[in-house]
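Quick start: what a row looks like.
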Amino acid sequence: MRKIVLTFGLIAGGLLSLMMVISMLFIDRIGYDRGEIIGYTTMVLSFLMVFFGIRSYRDSVAGGALGFGRAFSVGLLITIIACSCYTATWQVIYYKFMPNFGDKYAAHMIAKSKASGATQQQLDAKQREMESFKAMYKNPVMNVALTFIEPFPVGLVITLICAGILRRKRGVPDDGRSAASVGAAAV
């Protein structure tokens, strides 16, 4: 199990990290809103490795039979490894290359509020919210926690779906037909 989880977790984490690096290189051109769309699309595509990891475990280690709980645990471990890679990559980008990210993001959010026609009271509230965000984001522990939580729900949902799809009891044919219908068709 360890080899499968590490292999597929590192592939998913590598994809997540690569797309983060690429999108951060062009964030000033594509904007934060498009960057968010690209980021979450990449997360969904990267977490497809959960499906392939669970399937690989089912077919090569579990002998073709896999319950929901074991499938979920394999997928969850792949997700945790991928999210850890994502978090580690962001820590390097943030602290080494983009220490002013909080300021730029706060300015973007305030400008977005202004453009949407927010009142001065709403703008002041947004300003306070962004100041709180920047202070919280400078704390390394909170930075790691917030970064890890970004892709984790996506991976968790995909893990639940994949565990449900890929579970299989012993004796169930691969094509999904029941043993009775296979025997009846042979007669």
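That is the whole record. Confidence is low (pLDDT under 50) at residues 177-187. The chain has nine helices and no strands.
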